[in-house]
Specification:
By secondary structure, this protein is mainly α. The protein has a domain of 63 residues. 61% of the residues lie in helices and 0% in strands. The chain is built from 3 helices and no strands. Helix 1 packs antiparallel against helix 2 and helix 2 packs antiparallel against helix 3. The longest helix is centred in the C-terminal third of the chain and has 27 residues. It is elongated and about 60 Å long. 2% of the residues are buried.
Length: 106
């Protein structure tokens, strides 16, 4: 239940930041959304009903499913690469939309 609430709070914060006007808030919203997606993928492994991945018993009913863990690791790498790309776009992109070409306010 706590994991579901955490995913909901992260998605709500991400939607709030993604609807903002500044590009840095959009990047931070994307980071929050990727964390929520990672937690959602991780929760599909059944963390409440299963134990360690490699415990004393190697019964498939009690060990953790390694596939969602592999998906989360892949999603972390992809989200990190996209975040770096978005931050580089934010740095090298246009100036603030309230300024015109000479740098003066409208």
């Amino acid at each position: 239940m706590t994991l579901a609430i955490t995913v909901g709070v992260l998605v709500a914060g991400a939607v709030y930041l993604l609807t903002a006007r500044t590009f840095l808030r959009v990047v931070l919203g994307f980071v929050l959304l990727s964390h929520a997606a990672n937690l959602l993928l991780f929760s599909t492994g059944g963390i409440a009903r299963r134990g360690e991945p490699l415990g004393s018993e190697l019964d498939a009913a009690v060990t953790a499913d390694p596939l969602p863990q592999a998906f989360v690791l892949t999603a972390i790498v992809i989200a990190f690469a996209i975040t770096i790309y978005l931050l580089s776009l934010a740095i090298s992109g246009r100036h603030d939309e309230d300024e015109d070409e000479e740098g003066e306010d409208r």
